[in-house]
Write a structure and sequence with these properties.
Rossmann fold, alpha/beta, globular, 23% strand, binds S-adenosylmethionine, seven-stranded mixed sheet
């Protein structure tokens, strides 16, 4: 299955900012507690975007690990490189398309991670086969992504606003099934962990910011709902009306992010 996907960097950064501002729990703490990266490790982050996980691990090990971040978006890689320079970090950010053979030799990494990215892979057997190949024996793979119950309120509001069927999202619809099964088949051991974050919006506006930054995340997948700028703005208008009604009724808007983390060992 070929999935057209591109992430404008401002949308990704906006969502990260909103998670941090309005969330009840911190996914970074959860990730570090689960993985406990160590100095001396060789780490690869696939679909690294602007480098969120790379910088998280780099801070955690106080610069003591060798870290590589790979992404196919030059725009996001540039953002990551700018931050790398500004922080005086020594992370290697490079082009990597996870639908192609990874440009690393076998048995290179202790840890291979991918946050909200690798589940867009066209051929799961191939991509997770590559992750397995570049890991050392006993090395670990960590893949995080949305579970089917993720952001239920976001989809309910859109459903009420449009009366339309929500298109299936490649992440949440595949994460527990195809993705977990593929990893279990290829790796010696795989387990599923869960993280919940309740985002409480104290007003409608930041929720709409989140909606905008999310609809464009999977813009190509949402095309059944809008065509062009005018229809997009009309859709946002309808969503704003429903969100405002819900806000008046409940006094707040709460959206729960439900994230799965698959941890596997080679
Ligand atoms: C939702 S963002 C997550 C970025 C980052 N991991 C984070 O947690 O902030 C998804 C990322 O996957 C990347 N991506 C999508 N398809 C890709 C591909 N075929 N090869 C490499 N990266 C890809 C996008 O460019 C984007 O950076």
């Amino acid at each position: 299955m070929k999935i057209n996907y591109s992430e404008p960097s401002k949308d990704l950064l906006m969502r990260i900012d909103i998670h941090e501002k309005y969330g009840s729990a911190n996914i970074d703490v959860w990730t570090n507690d689960l993985l406990k990266p160590q100095a001396g490790m060789n780490i690869l982050d696939v679909g690294c975007g602007a480098g969120k996980l790379c910088f998280l691990f780099n801070d955690y090990v106080k610069g003591g690990a060798k870290i590589t971040g790979g992404d196919f978006s030059e725009e996001l890689l540039d953002k990551a490189r700018e931050k790398n320079k500004a922080f005086g970090a020594d992370i290697n950010f490079q082009f990597l398309d996870f639908n192609e053979k990874f440009k690393f030799t076998d048995n290179t990494f202790d840890l291979c991670t991918s946050a909200f990215a690798i589940y867009y892979a066209s051929d799961l057997d191939f991509t997770f086969g590559e992750a397995h190949r570049v890991l050392k024996p006993g090395g670990r793979l960590f893949v995080s992504g949305p579970l089917p119950e993720n952001k239920q309120m976001f989809y309910d509001i859109i459903k009420e606003a449009t009366n339309a069927t929500i298109p299936p999202m490649p992440g949440s619809s595949r994460f527990k099934g195809d993705i977990f099964n593929t990893i279990s088949k290829i790796f010696a051991k795989a387990e599923l962990h869960k993280f919940e974050n309740h985002l409480t919006f104290p007003e409608v506006a930041p929720f709409i910011d989140y909606v905008r930054a999310s609809l464009s995340e999977d813009r190509k997948l949402w095309t059944s709902m809008f065509n062009g700028k005018d229809e997009y703005e009309a859709l946002i208008g309808k969503i704003t009306d429903v969100a405002t009604r819900w806000f008046k009724r409940d006094g707040k808007l709460v959206m729960t992010k439900v994230v799965g983390g698959i941890l596997a060992t080679k």
